[in-house]
Design brief:
The complex is a heterodimer. Chain A is an all-alpha fold. Helix content of chain A is about 80%, strand content about 0%. In chain B, helix 4 crosses helix 8 and helix 7 packs across helix 9. Classes of the chains: A mainly alpha, B mainly alpha.
């Protein structure tokens, strides 16, 4: 092989690289599709089981504690979790790639994926984190009655945690915005 | 409920995404027949494509399976509005881009555009055999942004600007400029004493 390769030589190296090229039988493809759907179903189930455990725990607190604030907080948390579960059910797909891959030019597909991710990051606070916060605040206040200092610390932790999530997601959304702008710029040229 | 929000685990997709279709008979040819034809004609090219998107052998195997699965599914909606080659490459690049985006949520590394790569100085190319040249080429391709990766791969597969434009959606003039840059980068990357490589 000479030291100096011209672009055509490099194309030749690329096209003649050894490949296995083992055909994938259709039965195997179907089996893969089935396995994939099962995997996604299991993942969705995990989310729902986690929600069910949360609901069970806060239902237990309603009966265990007599404080009105704890009971009200528990009810709010349960309502928040149910809202999130409904949103997950409405928004989550099977996780499969869309069927229009063959008719979508790659720049358009890439842009669409980036926009979806960005919108998700921007809205995740509204439907995934936000609905549970009011219940947790009321619950924390009920857990620490007559202890204003501890209540303030609890509220501060909640504010820092949720603020951190919002900040992290916004930063990621801004990065995606830059990539979308780059693609728009390429498309307009 | 998990306290931490992870987009990767939620796997939400845009509601505007078209629904999946499973089986359809098109122009007397079934989805399975179309897939067989495509896999036979482009199986090797798809393997090369997977290699260009995924350096890890296990992930690469997964990606190749994902591409074949996406291809088989896509033929349920085949309408012959473009050539089989364009269709196959669009599906493969789109599936691979989706895979790469998922991987990037767990790994952090910097990707460059062709324009940025053209500015990066590098050591001279070693006295290399085919394997070394291929490895060097793969390193270069792995570091590129998705769209530029698609352009360079299509170029390496022997396509012209019009075909690359059809697959990527870029204007032919834009593709021609990128090809010019690719040739310049490749020439310098594989030139003894040159200053560009990975």
């Amino acid at each position: 092989m000479p030291n100096e390769l011209l672009p055509d030589d490099i194309r030749n190296v690329w096209q003649n690289q050894p490949v296995e090229n083992t055909p994938m039988p259709l039965e195997e493809i179907r089996r893969q599709a089935w396995r994939f759907e099962k995997r996604i179903a299991r993942r969705n189930l995990r989310e729902y089981v986690a929600a069910a455990i949360g609901i069970a725990a806060y239902t237990f607190y309603i009966f265990k504690f007599h404080s009105l604030a704890i009971r009200a907080g528990s009810v709010l948390v349960i309502a928040g979790v149910l809202y999130v579960v409904v949103q997950l059910y409405r928004r989550a797909s099977s996780g499969s790639l869309p069927a229009d891959l063959g008719v979508t030019a790659s720049i358009e597909f890439h842009r669409r994926e980036l926009v979806c991710q960005r919108d998700l990051l921007r809205s995740v606070w509204r439907w995934y984190v936000g609905p549970i916060i009011p219940g947790l605040v009321v619950f924390t206040v009920g857990l620490l009655p007559h202890r204003a200092g501890a209540q303030a610390v609890g509220a501060l932790f909640l504010a820092l945690g949720s603020g951190g999530i919002v900040w992290f997601n916004r930063r990621a959304a801004i990065r995606l915005d830059r990539q979308i702008a780059e693609l728009d710029n390429l498309e307009s040229q | 409920m998990r306290a931490q929000v992870s987009v990767a685990t939620l796997q939400i997709v845009c509601k505007k995404s078209p629904p999946l279709v499973t089986t359809l008979i098109v122009e007397g040819s079934t989805q399975d027949d179309r897939y067989r034809e495509a896999a036979e004609a482009y199986g090797a090219a798809l393997e090369r494509l997977a290699r260009a998107y995924e350096a890890d052998p296990d992930h690469r195997r997964d990606l190749l399976q994902e591409i074949h699965l996406a291809l088989w599914r896509s033929f349920a909606g085949w309408d012959a509005r473009c050539s089989l080659r364009t269709w196959v490459y669009r599906v493969a690049h789109n599936a691979a881009t989706s895979h790469a985006m998922r991987q990037r949520r767990t790994k952090t590394y910097l990707l460059l555009s062709l324009e940025e790569l053209d500015q990066v100085p590098s050591p001279p190319a070693p006295d290399a055999g085919r394997q070394e040249a291929l490895s060097r080429l793969l390193t270069l391709v792995h570091g590129l942004k998705p769209l530029d990766r698609q352009v360079i791969l299509s170029y390496l597969e022997g396509m012209d600007a019009a075909a690359i434009g059809e697959i990527t959606g870029l204007a032919p003039g834009n593709v021609a400029t990128k090809i010019h840059r690719i040739k310049s980068i490749l020439t310098r990357a594989f030139h003894q004493g040159g200053r560009h490589a990975k």
